[in-house]
Amino acid sequence: MSLSDMYKKTVLDHNRNPRHYGRPAHYTHMAEGLNAICGDQVLVFLTVEGDRIDSIHFDGESCAISTASASLMCDFLTGKSVDEAKEHFQQFCQLMDKDNPATEIPALGPVNAMAGVKKFPTRIKSATLCWHAMNAALEGREFATTEK
C-alpha cells in the first residue's frame, strides 16, 4: 500500500470512528488547542499515574485531519511515559515539518500515516494541533495554538 493510500485510509477510518473521543469523567491534565485560521478546536485530557499516561482522550470541533490525528495520537500515547510522549511530540513535529522530506520516523509507528498531510501544507497545523495541546497539558499549560 502506498503512503498516499495508507494516509487516506487512516484519516477516513479515524475520522469516522475516532478512538478515545469524548470528555472523561476524571483526568489529571487538560489543555485546549485552537487553530484560529481554520477554526479547529480540540481539548485533550490525560490521566497521568506516576510517570505513565494511563489514559488520553480528546473532544472538540475539528476537521477530518485534526480528528484523525487526535485519534491516532491517543491510541499511540496511551501507556507511554511522560518523557516518551514529549519525545514523540518533538518527533511528530519534525515529521510534519514541510521542509523535512522524511515520510516516516520509525519510533512513531502507525502515526507515520499522517505524513501524507504534508502534500497539503495548509493542513499541517490541523494535524499537529492535538499534539501541541497534549504537550501543553503535560507542561501544565491550559492552552496551545499552532499559530506563531
Assign the CATH topology: Sufe protein. Chain: A
What CATH architecture would you give? Alpha-Beta Complex
Mean pLDDT: 91
Strand adjacency order, main sheet: 3-2-1-4
Number of domains: 1
Total DSSP helices: 4
Q: Tell the overall outline.
A: globular
Strand content: 15-25%
Sheet bearing the most strands, described? 4 strands, mixed
Over all CA atoms, what is the radius of gyration? Answer: 14 Å
- Classified by CATH, the class is Alpha Beta
Helix content bin: 25-40%
Structural class label: alpha+beta
How far from one another are the termini? 35 Å
pLDDT under 50 segments (min length 5)? none
Plain-language structure description:
With 148 residues, this protein is an alpha+beta fold. The protein has a single domain (3-145), classed as Sufe protein. Chain: A, CATH 3.90.1010. The chain has helices spanning 3-16, 64-77, 82-96, 124-138; strands at residues 29-35, 40-49, 52-61, 143-145. The protein has a 4-stranded mixed sheet, with helices on one face. A hairpin with a 2-residue loop joins strand 2 (40-49) and strand 3. Helix 2 (64-77) packs across helix 4 and helix 3 (82-96) packs antiparallel against helix 4 (124-138). It is globular, with a radius of gyration of 14 Å. The mean pLDDT is 91.
